[in-house]
Amino acid sequence: MRKGNLMLSVGLLALCSLTFGAVMLSGQGLSRAATWTTPAKMSLNERMENATAELNAMRAAPEEESTALVSFKGFKNKDFVVSLLQNRNLRVTRMYHSYTGSHTHMGGYVVKDGQSVGDALNAYDASMKTGIQNQIDMANKKMKQLETIVANQAPDDKEALENQKALNAIKVTLNDLQQQQSYVSANGLQVYGVQLIGRNKDIVAVAGNAATTAVEKVTNNSKKGWNPILPAGGNQ
Amino acid sequence: MWKRLSAYLVAITMLVGSTAAPAFAYDPPETYSPWQGESDIYADANGKHWTHQMMYWRAGSKVAFDAANDTYEHQTVFYNYDNTAWAVESTGWWQTDMPDPYQDTQWLNDTNVAGNPNEYDITVGTFDPDLLVAEQWYYSEVELKPTSSASSFYKISGQSGYTTCPSLWCVLGEGTAIYIPYKTGFTAPERNRNFKYEWESNNTMDAAADGIYVNDWGSGTISSATDVDYWDFNVYYAQTIKFLMNVPDNTSIDYDVNVYNDAGAIVAQGHLNGGQDESFSAYLPVGHYYIKVYSYSGYDANIQYQILPYNDCNC
Question: E strand or H helix at B255, and its extent?
Answer without folding.
Answer: strand B254-261
